[in-house]
């Protein structure tokens, strides 16, 4: 079976800079990162991707898993010349990054899991939701998604992007609204991830709350965990500056450690 077909944004930032790949949550598009990208593209070659049937990606022609998505992400980036990347993803996009770090370890230099975990939700609930969407359309998820995605005050403030994401949700292909996370559970394999990992969780997140973030963090060999105040399940939308600041600080530390390690190897030689 062919891996799912994704859509990648045009990369922005210096051509010689390290790659930073940004992954979406289910039901959203590359738009989820639009407030963050300008804050990081001065230092990184930033590219985002869309899930099948979301944003600019064609509809799925078959069911796909988180591992399938990870393979498609890696293949798409390699065709664009990337030999290694920093990766940050929200929810399902974060799970894809975790799987990428597990299954293609030499490709991921650093990982940021935003509002994500080693397991997300219950398999039965994911299957039920996917079936509901197939029967009723993605537009029927607007109300539940508004409650799930955002902190209580976010929509009340009337910001444009949260409302636009909810509008875009109705355009997602119903057959592509996947239950891939139903079978996703890597809790027993986290110690195999060797790259540094930052776990970011939103204070008001009902999906990837503190316990979910802690389970991911506690299984890692090299992990950090940070709470983002006043955010729910989509911190890059609700507080792009804080999200970009934490990602930027983490990646700066990773790049600095890598550079120093290279210097030490050169000296030893």
Describe what this molecule looks like in 3D.
The protein has 269 residues and is α/β, with parallel strands linked by helices. It has a single domain (7-268), classed as Alpha/Beta hydrolase fold, catalytic domain (Rossmann fold, 3-Layer(aba) Sandwich), CATH 3.40.50.1820. Helix content is 39%, strand content 14%. It has nine helices and seven strands, in the order ββαβαβαβαααβαβαα. The chain has helices at residues 37-40, 66-79, 92-103, 123-136, 142-149, 160-169, 210-218, 235-238, 240-268, and strands spanning 7-8, 19-23, 45-50, 85-90, 108-114, 197-202, 223-228. The protein has a seven-stranded mixed beta sheet, sandwiched between helices. Strand 2, helix 1 and strand 3 (45-50) form a beta-alpha-beta unit. It starts with 6 loop residues before the first strand and ends with a helix. The model is unreliable at 262-269 (pLDDT under 50).
CATH architecture: 3-Layer(aba) Sandwich
| Strand order of the biggest β-sheet | 1-3-2-4-5-6-7
| Morphology call | globular
CATH fold node name: Rossmann fold
Order of helices and strands: EEHEHEHEHHHEHEHH
Q: Ranges with pLDDT <50 over ≥5 residues?
A: 262-269
Gyration radius from CA atoms, angstroms: 18 Å
- Total strand segments: 7
The percentage helix is 25-40%
Percent strand equals 5-15%
Mean pLDDT reading: 94
Would you kindly provide a brief summary of this structure?
The protein has 269 residues and is α/β, with parallel strands linked by helices. The chain has helices spanning 37-40, 66-79, 92-103, 123-136, 142-149, 160-169, 210-218, 235-238, 240-268; strands spanning 7-8, 19-23, 45-50, 85-90, 108-114, 197-202, 223-228.
């Amino acid at each position: 079976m062919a891996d799912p077909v994704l859509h990648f944004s045009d990369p922005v930032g210096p051509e010689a800079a390290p790659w930073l790949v940004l992954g979406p949550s289910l039901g959203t598009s590359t738009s989820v990162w639009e407030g963050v990208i300008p804050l990081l593209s001065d230092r990184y070659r930033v590219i985002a991707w869309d899930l099948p049937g979301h944003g600019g990606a064609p509809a799925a022609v078959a069911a796909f898993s988180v591992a399938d998505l990870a393979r498609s992400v890696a293949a798409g980036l390699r065709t664009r010349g990337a030999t290694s990347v920093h990766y940050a993803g929200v929810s399902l996009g974060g799970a894809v990054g975790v799987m990428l770090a597990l299954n293609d370890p030499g490709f991921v230099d650093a990982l940021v899991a935003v509002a994500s975990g080693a397991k997300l939700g219950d398999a039965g609930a994911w299957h039920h939701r996917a079936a509901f969407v197939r029967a009723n359309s993605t537009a029927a998820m607007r109300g539940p998604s508004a409650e799930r995605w955002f902190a209580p005050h976010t929509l009340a403030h009337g910001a444009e992007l949260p409302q636009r994401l909810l509008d875009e949700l109705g355009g997602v292909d119903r057959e592509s609204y996947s239950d891939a996370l139903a079978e996703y559970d890597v809790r027993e394999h986290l110690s195999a991830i060797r790259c540094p990992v930052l776990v970011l969780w939103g204070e008001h997140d009902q999906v990837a709350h503190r316990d979910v973030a802690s389970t991911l963090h506690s299984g890692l060999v090299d992990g950090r965990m940070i709470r983002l105040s006043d955010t729910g399940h989509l911190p890059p939308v609700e507080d792009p500056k804080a999200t970009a600041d934490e990602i930027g600080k983490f990646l700066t530390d990773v790049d600095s450690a890598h550079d120093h390690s290279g210097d030490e190897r050169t000296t030893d030689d």
